[in-house]
Specification:
alpha/beta, Rossmann fold, Arc Repressor Mutant, subunit A, four-stranded antiparallel β-sheet, 8 helices, 11 strands, 42% helix, 20% strand
Length: 227
């Protein structure tokens, strides 16, 4: 899943991010509501974990703003322990509420359960340009012009990251952070993965149908999805 963590306490933010990444989630970190709203405007997240007592704009106001635009799953983790506080936040549209101190393991179990529900609603196939390129996430198969093509596990993960976030331009550092934070991958390795993906789908770097290079910024998937 793609998760946004909104927590101004650095150690708690880092702790949640570390464990979530360990469970193979894609994690973006914000330290106030303003940063969170900026991230939400330019990315599609599956879930938001937020504190309530944030600097400037409070967590309750953040939830209100989110609910005007999205039904994204929201988990609140807060030091506010009064039942009335919990009920008020749930009325605003939060889906779950945990009080501090909290169990990180409990949060990870909740994430896993939410992920299972989301996976049931995900498309069974990703298809582009009248089935020129078809990806089956369940089988981890990639078919180009009706031929099964071979990608390494890492190349497949990079392709799926780009496909599932078509509006987002990923820098090499972001790709490494999201997919390979536990490995020894480095910037130029990402370039090699992209080059190999382009090769098997006959993508022209100068006139890209699938992966566009934003020079000095990163990579973006631009394939035209079938209806």
């Amino acid at each position: 899943m793609k998760i946004l963590i909104v927590e101004d306490h650095l150690k708690i933010n880092e702790l949640l991010a570390k464990f979530a990444k360990g469970e193979k989630h894609q994690v973006f970190q914000a330290y106030n509501a303003e940063q969170a709203l900026t991230a939400l405007a330019s990315n599609k997240f599956d879930l938001v974990i937020t504190d309530l007592m944030l600097p400037n704009l409070q967590g309750e106001d953040l939830i209100k703003r989110i609910r005007k635009e999205s039904n994204i799953y929201i988990i609140v983790i807060s030091a506010k322990t009064e039942m009335d506080d919990k009920i008020d936040v749930l009325k605003l549209g939060a889906d779950d509420y945990l009080t501090k101190p909290f169990s990180v393991k409990e949060v990870m179990v909740k994430l896993k359960n939410i992920e299972k529900r989301i996976e049931k609603t995900m498309p069974t196939l990703y298809s582009f340009y009248d089935k020129e390129l078809v990806i089956d996430p369940e089988k981890r198969e990639v078919v180009f012009k009706k031929e099964l093509i071979k990608l390494t596990n890492y190349e497949y993960e990079v392709l799926m990251l780009l496909i599932t976030h078509p509006k987002h331009i990923f820098s090499r550092a972001q790709i490494i952070e999201q997919l390979f934070s536990e490995s020894d991958a480095y910037d130029r390795v990402i370039d090699v993965y992209i080059k190999n993906i382009r090769k098997v789908v006959n993508d022209d770097i100068n006139k890209p149908k699938y992966i566009k290079t934003h020079y000095g910024v990163g990579y973006q998937f631009v394939g035209e999805k079938d209806d």
